[in-house]
Specification:
With 168 residues, the protein is an all-alpha fold. Helices cover 78% and strands 0% of the residues. The protein has one domain.
């Protein structure tokens, strides 16, 4: 089981590398748009829609990895109430399970919206990219994040030793 966890940790670098590449493209496109706008009075017309798509790709590519590594923003107002390691483990496991289960609802809603966009034939304004592509991407990555959180919650409750090498 430890080798499977090691493989998963290695594979988690792929979405982060892809998100980094898309973020670099976003940075380059923004720079080029500013230069074109300022120097030649000719901005990149599709910059706004590309920015929206690139931001969605960056956020939703990183979401499952951040959820799996527990690197998301945490408000620790109740942490002083949990001093026992067992209580901390149960709290963390249940929170991960609850968050994972709750993520299935927005993922299903995004599927409905993506299918509606596909049925209506919605495309982006300048590049005419079908909008359901990004909708399905968001839905799939949200489903993956939900599965990751549920799995992490179960592992935290049942076999926390599998997570120890990650947290050291």
């Amino acid at each position: 089981m430890k080798s499977a966890m090691s493989l998963i940790r290695q594979l988690s670098h792929v979405p982060i590398l892809l998100a980094s590449a898309v973020l670099f493209l976003l940075m380059f496109m923004t720079f080029a748009d500013v230069i074109m706008r300022s120097t030649f009075n000719s901005p990149i017309e599709a910059a706004t829609e590309l920015t929206r798509m690139f931001m969605a790709i960056v956020v939703f590519l990183a979401l499952p990895v951040i959820s799996g590594k527990q690197e998301h923003i945490v408000v620790d107002l109740a942490d002083p109430l949990f001093t026992n390691p067992w209580a901390i483990r149960i709290r963390d496991g249940l929170i991960n399970l609850a968050c994972g289960v709750m993520l299935f609802w927005p993922a299903q809603r995004v599927v409905v919206l993506a299918e509606r966009a596909r049925d209506y034939g919605d495309v982006t304004e300048y590049l005419a990219i079908p909008q359901f592509y990004i909708g399905w991407f968001i839905a799939i990555m949200t489903f993956v994040s939900a599965i990751v959180l549920v799995a992490r919650g179960l592992i935290t409750l049942i076999a926390p030793q599998l997570l120890e090498t990650e947290e050291e």
